[in-house]
């Protein structure tokens, strides 16, 4: 069984604006509302690739209702906890000359809500996978990731973590199965700028030394690097194509990696599938579908 946890899922409001300007009214030329949040995206793409998962997290208010409806429409098995105060956030993604994101704060989550989430996670055991990704709402303590890892310790659950900075480094002692920073996040951890795949490799190795079994570093159009638990290093540029919407590309690569590994047991294939799934999402206005991923792999 695979579960994803998104502490702060969202409705993503994707808009296109020609020549966006600050301090004035801008009119959109395209708009779309998508279910969002990193774990939610991983669940959607896993489903698209033919692998069932359950999406856990917290929702609230009318935006929470719409998120549940959109997730159901996308075929995601959701078991969200409904919290009493506030609303599921709306994250605005503005595509113009540059891409600008405005991510909201999310609802108020109480310790009782957190306990409810933990009791759901307690159902996981040997051979199961838990993906924890995305930010933790400011109302929650910052050790949420560690608390989950500590709770699962010794139960044989493979934990995948996609989060920034301290959230990521603080789980490393619990030996996560996979971490997926992008090159900027990896550079931030070590106070360096990482531009090329060659520059990324030694820092990805460091995360392995600090406790992660597998380290997948995504690098947008530059592709990515995998330092696997076998000690093997895989690196590749990304497929060439026109980027339509890169929101969720990183989450797609996590889903692609897990799907590839479950299907073949090969880290090389899992890595190829991670990159192709990320690119397939970036090249369309929806998250990657299996035929799109296979077409990219076939053309590589
Ligand atoms: N411009 C691009 N061209 C080709 N592939 C891309 C591009 N942008 C992203 N991808 C694919 O998606 C993968 C993940 O992208 P990226 O590194 O931007 O993730 P991320 O920073 O975690 O993104 P997000 O937080 O938006 O999900 C890349 O490894 C690559 O395979
Ligand atoms: O604010 P966070 O939790 O860091 O990121 C949330 C988010 O930007 O991540 C997803 C893309 O990866 C989007 O669907 C969502 O809006």
- What's the oligomerization state? single chain
SSE order, as H and E?
A: EEEHEHEEEEHEHEHEHHEEEHHH
Q: Rg to the nearest angstrom?
A: 18 Å
Structural class: alpha/beta
Please tell me the overall pLDDT: 96
What small molecules are bound in this structure?
Answer: adenosine-5'-triphosphate, 1-O-phosphono-beta-D-fructofuranose
Provide the helix percentage. Answer: 25-40%
CATH architecture of the largest domain: 3-Layer(aba) Sandwich
The stretches of 5 or more residues where confidence is low (pLDDT under 50) are none
State the CATH topology of the largest domain. Answer: UDP-N-acetylmuramoyl-L-alanine:D-glutamate ligase
Shape: globular
What is the CATH superfamily of the largest domain? Ribokinase
- Cα distance, first to last residue? 31 Å
Tally of DSSP β-strands? 14
Strand proportion, as a percent range, falls in 15-25%
Number of domains in the coordinates?
2
Helix count from the secondary structure assignment = 10
Biggest sheet statistics: 10 strands, mixed
- The first-level CATH class of the largest domain is given as Alpha Beta
């Amino acid at each position: 069984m695979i579960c994803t946890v998104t502490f702060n899922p969202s409705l993503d409001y994707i808009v296109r604006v020609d020549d966006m300007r600050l301090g004035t009214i801008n009119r959109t030329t395209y708009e779309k509302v998508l279910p969002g949040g990193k774990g939610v995206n991983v669940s959607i793409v896993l489903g698209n690739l033919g692998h069932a998962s359950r999406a856990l997290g917290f929702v609230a208010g009318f935006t929470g209702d719409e998120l549940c409806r959109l997730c159901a429409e996308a075929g995601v098995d959701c078991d969200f906890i409904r919290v009493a105060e506030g609303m599921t956030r709306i994250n605005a993604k503005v595509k113009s000359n540059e891409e600008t994101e405005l991510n909201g704060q999310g609802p108020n989550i109480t310790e009782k809500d957190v306990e409810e989430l933990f009791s759901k996670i307690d159902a996981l055991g040997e051979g199961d996978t838990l993906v924890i990704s995305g930010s933790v709402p400011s109302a929650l303590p910052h050790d949420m990731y560690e608390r989950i890892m500590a709770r699962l310790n010794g139960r044989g659950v493979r934990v995948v973590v996609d989060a920034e900075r301290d959230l990521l480094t603080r789980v490393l002692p619990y030996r996560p199965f996979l971490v997926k920073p992008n090159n900027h996040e990896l550079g931030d951890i070590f106070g360096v700028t990482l531009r090329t795949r060659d520059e990324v490799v030694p820092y990805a190795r460091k995360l392995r030394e600090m406790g992660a079994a597998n380290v997948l570093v995504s690098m947008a159009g530059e592709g990515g690097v995998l330092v696997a638990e076998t000690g093997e290093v895989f690196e590749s540029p990304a497929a060439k194509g026109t980027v339509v919407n890169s929101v969720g590309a990183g989450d797609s690569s996590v889903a692609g990696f897990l799907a590839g590994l479950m299907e073949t047991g090969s880290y090389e294939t899992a890595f190829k599938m991670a990159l192709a799934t990320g690119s397939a999402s970036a090249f369309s206005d929806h998250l990657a579908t299996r035929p799109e991923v296979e077409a990219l792999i076939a053309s590589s």
